């Protein structure tokens, strides 16, 4: 014979203070778990989701990122012969030579400094990176004009259309912002794009940082990479998505740190639940004995306490989710220790994260209630009636 659910629900309100304190503790754990996992998910989506599967990214041998790479003109000329390279409307191979540098800007939220990537591209770059959609006007090749990513515009000062941003080795050249672009939430949205020749001149660069080759078929990636890596070119080639997946390893480290912090917080919540349930057992010894006298088994009483703990945990989970919702959609950035520039990302609270938080809350509740439940089941009837 099992106890009805309303019995458990009624008992939650008999000890309001202890119940509320337990709900608060678990809710803090849930809210922290949701927000921190959302940080990690947003970072992985921004960086790990970048790149086109048919794009081959070329760096110089030994470089770990575009910002630390250099490709000399004589090497760049060999890339047009890459097997499998797609051809543009003008009949030329889709090979985008790009200059990647950084500039210092100020964050909107606290005026702190941020190192933002600046990418110099030619017109062919927009055929290779065809996910880029520009709102406003495209910059004019040969002019000191620029477009900014949507994430960069929302995070940093002085990057609205009509503003002027100082670029160059001595920040002596001003570029007018003429448009804002989107790129399906990828890392490109954290950058400033401008004409390649103008950026090379402003930063006194006589070489390119990288090249991106659009292939006519992603299945030809291996053959194209073998040509670039081989003796004819002697550069380093990798698929663009793979390059960004490697950069996203840093965000994976954040996820591991999150899990460590949440485990510590969850351990404290387990003790809070256990304390609440022990108090419930001590205060209800006579009631437990009466239930045993009425024919309820030890198993039914254990189940009743576990159900109460699950109810507390479920209620706390709802409170924690509600408390974390204001963070959804916020934009933040992180500094990559590989590219040495910041990447913006959006905090995204997904149904999967909420389900993980619910599972964690229920686990905390059940583990915390396990020992008190066992104690309730072992309470001798006669002694409980005498001491109740």
Characterize the structure shown.
This protein has 388 residues and is of the alpha+beta class. The chain has 2 domains: 5-47 and 249-387, no CATH class; 51-246, no CATH class. It contains 13 helices and 12 strands. Strands 1, 2, 3, 4, 5, 6, 7, 8, 9 and 10 form a 10-stranded mixed sheet that branches. A hairpin with a 5-residue loop joins strand 6 and strand 7. Helix 1 (5-14) packs across helix 11 (298-324), helix 2 (16-48) runs antiparallel to helix 12 (351-377) and helix 10 (285-293) packs across helix 13. The chain starts with a helix and ends with a helix. The mean pLDDT is 86.
Distance between the amino and carboxyl termini: 23 Å
Low-confidence stretches at least 5 residues in length (pLDDT < 50)?
Answer: none
Radius of gyration from the CA trace? 30 Å
| Total number of helices | 13
Tell me the total number of β-strands: 12
Q: Please give the domain count.
A: 2
Largest sheet features: 10 strands, mixed
- Structural category: alpha+beta
Q: What characteristic shape results from the CA principal axes?
A: elongated
Helix fraction?
A: 40-55%
Beta-strand portion reads 15-25%
The helix/strand order is HHEHEEHEEHEEEHEHEHHHHEEHH
Overall pLDDT: 86
Notable features of this structure?
13 helices; 2 domains; alpha+beta; 388 residues
Summarize the structure.
This protein is 48% helix and 19% strand. The longest helix is centred in the last third of the chain and has 35 residues, at 249-283.
Topology:
Elements: H1 5-14, H2 16-48, E1 55-60, H3 73-76, E2 95-106, E3 113-121, H4 125-128, E4 133-136, E5 145-149, H5 150-155, E6 164-167, E7 173-182, E8 192-195, H6 196-202, E9 210-214, H7 221-229, E10 235-239, H8 240-247, H9 249-283, H10 285-293, H11 298-324, E11 331-335, E12 342-346, H12 351-377, H13 381-387
Parallel strand pairs: 3-8, 5-7
Antiparallel strand pairs: 1-9, 1-10, 2-3, 2-9, 4-7, 5-8, 6-7, 11-12
Helix pairs in contact: 1-11, 2-9, 2-11, 2-12, 9-12, 10-13, 11-12
């Amino acid at each position: 014979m099992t106890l009805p659910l309303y019995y458990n629900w009624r008992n939650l309100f008999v000890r309001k203070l202890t119940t509320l304190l337990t709900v608060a503790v678990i809710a803090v754990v849930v809210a922290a778990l949701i927000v921190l996992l959302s940080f990690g998910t947003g970072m992985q989506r921004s960086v790990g989701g970048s790149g086109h599967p048919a794009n081959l990214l070329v760096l110089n041998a030994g470089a770990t990122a575009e910002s630390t790479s250099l490709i000399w003109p004589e090497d760049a000329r060999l890339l047009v012969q890459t097997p499998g390279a797609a051809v543009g409307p003008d009949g030329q191979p889709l090979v985008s030579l790009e200059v990647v540098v950084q500039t210092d800007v100020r964050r909107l939220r606290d005026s702190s400094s941020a190192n933002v990537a600046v990418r110099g591209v030619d017109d062919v770059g927009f055929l290779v990176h065809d996910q880029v959609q520009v709102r406003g006007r495209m910059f004019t090749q040969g002019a000191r004009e620029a477009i900014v990513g949507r994430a960069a515009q929302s995070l940093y000062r002085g990057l609205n259309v009509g503003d002027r941003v100082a670029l160059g080795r001595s920040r002596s050249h001003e570029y007018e912002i003429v448009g804002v672009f989107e790129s399906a939430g990828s890392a490109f949205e954290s950058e400033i794009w401008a004409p390649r020749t103008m950026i090379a001149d402003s930063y006194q660069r006589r070489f390119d940082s990288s090249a991106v080759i659009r292939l006519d078929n992603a299945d030809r990636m291996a053959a194209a990479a073998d040509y670039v890596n081989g003796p004819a070119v002697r550069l380093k080639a990798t698929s663009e998505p793979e390059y960004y997946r490697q950069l996203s390893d840093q965000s994976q480290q954040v996820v591991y740190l999150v899990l460590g912090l949440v485990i510590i917080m969850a351990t404290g919540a387990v003790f809070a639940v256990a304390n609440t349930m022990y108090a419930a057992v001590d205060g209800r010894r006579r009631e437990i004995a009466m239930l045993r006298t009425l024919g309820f088994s030890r198993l039914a009483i254990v189940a009743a306490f576990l159900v109460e703990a699950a109810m507390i945990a479920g209620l706390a989970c709802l409170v924690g989710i509600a408390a974390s919702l204001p963070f959804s959609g916020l934009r933040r950035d992180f500094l990559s220790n590989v590219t040495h520039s910041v990447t913006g990302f959006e905090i995204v609270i997904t149904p999967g994260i909420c389900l993980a938080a619910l599972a964690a809350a229920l686990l905390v509740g059940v583990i915390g209630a396990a020992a008190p439940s066992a104690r309730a089941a072992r309470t001798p009837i006669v002694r409980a009636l005498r001491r109740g």
